[in-house]
Amino acid sequence: xxxxxxxxxxTGLGRxxxxxxxxxxxxxxxxxxxxxxxxxxxxxxxxxxxxLPLDVTDKDQITAAVDKARARFGGIxxxxxxxxxxxRAAVEExxxxxxxxxxxxxxxxxxxxxxxxxxxxxxxxxxxxLNISSIGARxxxxxxxxxxxxxxxxEGLSGSLHxxxxxLGINVTVIEPGAFRTDFAGRSLTQSTTAIADYAETAGKRRxxxxxxxxxxxxxxDKAAAAIIAVVESPxxxxxxVLGKDAYGAFTAVADAQRAELDQWRGLSLSTGIDD
Length: 276
What we know:
By secondary structure, this protein is α/β, with parallel strands linked by helices. The chain has nine helices and nine strands.
């Protein structure tokens, strides 16, 4: 039995993962900004679930959550940084305050969670950290530049963290989902108040009022949750796991296009060395 701490459990993947982890017999610290939204999960598993309020932009709440998890279960074996939200705007359209709040939640909130759990994991020389990213980090759609940037930042951080922690017996995995049937493109999606007409055919098509994706996403959150548990239980977890046929196809297309462009410009790339 392992103890999981999962952020952002009120809806979507976080909620599905919390329920699946508990159904598999593990302990779970189930968190949300509004703890009332997850109390039903804890009520269904009174012996192994602990529902706590947690806004990942509040360092005092992070400290309190980790302390309470330690007091109840003795420590945290698995941290899942799932809390986050989407934001759509052309780069020029975005509001400064919105951008900072997005990075505070999607990037720095995860960083603060990682820093809070690592002392205990290092002491045990064991643990798993799973950072929920997005295929958006790979494909960078028009209108999702800032959201994609937060996930790319999280992935870059995770790559270095993986190298730092692997020798200490701690695994770090980036989970890169495609579109799943959650509330991510509905209630959880925000956008700029400004819309510039010149971007109507690019970023504008992804504004909420023009987006028809919500409710039709191909991914099943329960199956994603089962896949995440399989990663944690694997004797050799991957540094990156892509989830969904759409994400796998998009990842492959981007990788192929990047390799083709790399080869196309190989001569110029190699021309910049100092001549002997």
